[in-house]
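Structure tokens please, single chain.
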Amino acid sequence: PETLAAAKEIQNEEYRADALSALAQKLPPELFPETLAAAKEIQSDKHCANALIALAQKLPPELLPEALAAAKEIQSDKHRADALSALAQKLPPELFPETLAATKEIQNEEYRANALSALAQKLPPELLPEALAAAKEIQSDKHRANALIALAQKLPPELLPEALAAARDIQNEEYRADALSALAQKLPELLPETLVAVREIQSKYYRANALSALAQKLPPELLPEALAVVREIQDEEYRANALSALADKLPELLPETLAAVREIQDEKYRANALIALADKLPELLPEALAAVRGIQSDKHRANALIALADKLPELLPETLAAVSKIQDEYGNRANALSALAQKLPPELLPEALAVVREIQSDKHRANALIALADKLPELLPETLAAVSK
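Here you go.
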């Protein structure tokens, strides 16, 4: 009680809110009414909301209506939305109609969408039509899409056509594709349309991201079309990222996928795509290895070899040799050695240790020694000495 009394006497509202928030985790239940009353007295919307958020998970059921009323009184859209979102995780079902009504009154669309998204997972079936209507009223494509995405997994079959129409009305290509992709989990028949929507995205970045998100949901008959869409991406980095995401679903298309990867001119992105493919390439390992060996950059070749080494242990000497050639201005050699350390057989450890000792930077040498020390306990004194520098 004395600690709570002391917290309530703090004049600065930010510090008073911080103190109440810290106390909320430790107070006995009989002091929660007084603590909530103290939080409600804070005039600053931000600090009042922060105190309510801290209290939200600790309040007993009988105090939740009072906390909800306090959250509704917050004038700032942002802070009111934050407080409502925190309370939504704890509120009993009988308070959800009031909470949804309060959420719909938030004027700022971003904050309204955020609160609606937080509420979505908790709403009972009878409130979902009202929540979907609220999502559809959001004018911003981005925030409407986010609200639809949050609702997608909760909607019953009879509301899905309405949600689909709302998603199709989104003008922004990226956000329309995101919303369609979320709904496609409940409506697999939407996947062809979703793929078409993704294909229409003009931004290479967003098209690649949308394809990556969609990849795991596509049925086998749509994978060739998805690969064709990926290959149309001009930017090598984004094309490589999308190919990497498709690799898990494309066992029969792996030769074509590897060919697409090999067309990537940038060594770094080609190496990244090859690394992602490495686990899926048992019969294509020789070809993948040839592509990796063609990478001129020591760093990127070494990283790709490290990924392949799990499948081809005989590559370990070559991989260690590639790592030893990496210039270490930014810790690249140390990072590669650390990644390689646990894979090395005993006979290669002395050579690895020699490579580590050649690293000039104390920091990077220490990091590499730490990685090797698990395999060479006798290195611990040297490792400790390096770390102490």
